[in-house]
Amino acid sequence: MIKLIVFDMAGVLTSSWEFVPCILKETKIDYNLFNQIMRSDYDNFLKGIITSDEFWDLFNKKTGKKVSENLFIKCFNPVLNYELIEYVKNNIDISIKKVIGTNAPLDHYLIHKERGDYKYFDKVYCSSSIGYKKPEENFFIHIIKNERILPEEVLYFDDNGNYVQVSKDIGINGFHYKGFSSFKEAIENFNILNK
Q1: Cα–Cα distance between 140 and 142 in angstroms, integer?
Q2: Of 184, 186, 185, which is closest to residue 88 (Cα–Cα)?
């Protein structure tokens, strides 16, 4: 029996979220180089180990660039997927808890919170708050333990197939989100719609 649905934020509950191209344009740096020199720092940023100020200080030291503003805020402009949110609000049984499980720096979490984007959901599990990020198994285990449920009692939707596979590997019902119609098709296979 399904007791919990976990939704990814970027790419599922929001669109127009891709801030990396904007950052690359602003910094005039190639993605491969950015990824090569900043990957571990970015992972630490997503886990809340370092702040955005610390990230940009490291970036400036490693690249010789002079980024003086927080590009994670400047380049972030997500658009809510109202079609999906309205469907969830109006069609999923209210006894089923609906949460967000997202890889997000604190800056993005706070923007979503300030805009009221989380108000439709019971809880947010954010990588920068819990100290784990997808695709780490501990990200999913943290949610399961916190919710006091079994993996098979969870539906999980993410636009990243690698993250979905990790969730499946630990027994969660993971689905690769490829758009609203794929979501509806997956959700209708479970007995969780309003009667």
Answers
A1: 5
A2: 184
Helix axes 31-46, 20-27, angle to 10 degrees: 120
Residue type, 84: L
pLDDT, tens only, 67-111: 999 999 999 999 999 999 999 999 999 999 999 999 999 999 999
- As its CATH architecture, domain 4-16+77-187 has 3-Layer(aba) Sandwich (3.40)
pLDDT digits (tens, 9 = 90+) for 9-63: 999 999 866 788 999 999 999 999 999 999 999 999 999 999 999 999 999 999 9
Sole residue written with tokens 């800056």: 107
Domain boundaries, the chain: 4-16+77-187, 20-74
